[in-house]
Amino acid sequence: MVTDMNTVLRNPPPAGTVRTPGAGAQGPAAARPAAPAALQRDDVVVLLLAAMRPGALAWGWSRVVLRDKPLRQVPGLQFVKALGSGFEGGFGVKPSLDRSGLFALFRGEAAADAFIEQSATVAGYRAHARELFVAKLRATSSRGRWSGQDMGVSAQPMPGGPVAALTRASIKLGKSPTFWRLAPAAQVDLESASGCQLAVGLGEAPLLRQATFSVWDNVAAMDAYARSGAHMRAIQASVKNGFFSETMFVRFVPLLMQGQWKGRSYG
């Protein structure tokens, strides 16, 4: 909505608004509402998906066991999770022996690029993996927290372009049997969903702390899956039964996708 300049002059902006440098009183840009802190952060996510070579399974599992310890001194890194995966990268309770992931949140694209291109961590994954997928992402919408960490929105959606999504949850112990009874049907629907380029089940703790990452041709394809079938029934059940103690739902615009996952090449 375009602000009427006469209204601005009659009603000066309240404390906390942001004035654009050099704008003076020349137009509506002279006063802009202050954005929430989460909207002002330059958050960039790097997501790695790896399938280890047969002789490198111990190295792959060591990444999950060590969690954030090898990454504490990485410049610009704000938050990181080393993640396991379901069997064959899926969503069931059976764990994968060779597939894993890494979710890393950086302040600024330069720090994310340096991590991808120069870090010993990514070099190690490249050396030990038979498949490695790397994505660099900016959030277009975000709701909730992951271990208390929120996500700054730093991009606008790309109409008609690809979109990525992260859904993660901490499942209440007493609710986990009911949750996992609903998961297989939603997984089957996701794997066959039209417009889904990639989908993977990830987790930081067996059964109770789970995440799904997916990439879609466009928002319409993603919404068509999310609002129908087994997935919609699972959402309705989670709301009704209070499955989760903490959740995060994020949509991203992909800035970079490269490598290979489950036989498909990206970039």
Explain what the structure shows:
It is a single chain. By secondary structure, this protein is an alpha+beta fold. The protein has a single domain, classed as 2-Layer Sandwich (Alpha-Beta Plaits). It has eight helices and nine strands. It has helices at 5-10, 37-40, 57-66, 109-118, 120-128, 176-191, 219-226, 229-241; strands spanning 43-52, 77-86, 95-107, 129-144, 163-171, 196-205, 209-216, 244-261, 264-266. The chain has an eight-stranded antiparallel barrel, surrounded by five helices. Helix 4 (109-118) packs across helix 5 (120-128) and helix 6 packs antiparallel against helix 8 (229-241). The chain is globular and about 45 Å long.
What secondary-structure arrangement, pairings included, does this model have?
Blueprint: H1 5-10, H2 37-40, E1 43-52, H3 57-66, E2 77-86, E3 95-107, H4 109-118, H5 120-128, E4 129-144, E5 163-171, H6 176-191, E6 196-205, E7 209-216, H7 219-226, H8 229-241, E8 244-261, E9 264-266
Helix pairs in contact: 4-5, 6-8
Quick overview:
Helices cover 28% and strands 36% of the residues. It is α+β, with helices and mostly antiparallel strands and 267 residues long. The chain is globular, with a radius of gyration of 21 Å.
